[in-house]
Specification:
- The chain is mostly helical.
- It is built from 3 helices and 2 strands.
- A two-stranded antiparallel ribbon has the order 1-2.
- β1 and β2 form a beta hairpin.
- The mean pLDDT is 80.
Amino acid sequence: MAAAPEPGEPGKGKPFRLLGILDVENIPCARDSVLYGSLGSVVAGLGHFLLTSRIRRSCDVGVGGFIVVTLGCWFHCRYNYAKLRIQERIAREGIKNKILYESTHLDPERKLTATEQSKT
């Protein structure tokens, strides 16, 4: 039995594109945003229909619910994704500096002895 293909691997078939432009498999946050948006659409449209029994207006509310929930989830997820990328970059630079300055006179964790303190 073959293992499931990893997302984003080239040559594993055509990626799923929503409306021909949005590659939901490779774009971070796209899949979750579309799924939550469709759920929000169903909830908003069905809830409005159960309250008012107006079909056309309920469809309009469903479409509006899709747009609002999709954009809300998209911006929330992208904000968290960008924040995570910044934290990763800061950690990577810290590790690089730790490796670069370890055991040198520029190492902030190195304790200065009495002879070294008198030289500076």
